[in-house]
Amino acid sequence: MDTSKTNKLAVIGAGAAGYFTAVNTARMMHPRLQVTIFEKGRDVLSKVRISGGGRCNVTHHCFDAERLAENYPRGSKMLRWSFEQFGAAETVKWFEERGVKLKAEEDGRMFPVSDSSESIIQCLKKEAEKYGVKVATGTSVQKIEPQHNGTIRLTTNKEKSVVFDKVVVATGGLTREKAYDWLNEIGHSVIKPVPSLFTFNFREKIFSDLSGISVNPVQVQIADSAFSEIGPLLITHWGFSGPAVLKLSAWAARFLYDKEYRFDVVVNWLHPLNEHQVREKLISARLGNPRKSVTKQEQFLLPSRLWIRFLELSEITVQKNWADISNKEIHRLTAALTAGRYTIQGKTTFKEEFVTCGGIPLEEVNPDTLESKIVPGLYFTGEVLDIDGVTGGFNFQAAWTNGWLAARAISESGS
Ligand SMILES: Cc1cc2nc3c(=O)[nH]c(=O)nc-3n(C[C@H](O)[C@H](O)[C@H](O)COP(=O)(O)OP(=O)(O)OC[C@H]3O[C@@H](n4cnc5c(N)ncnc54)[C@H](O)[C@@H]3O)c2cc1C
Question: 31, 88, 356, 407: which could join 24 in a potential S-S bond, CB 3.0 to 4.6 Å?
Answer without folding.
Answer: 407
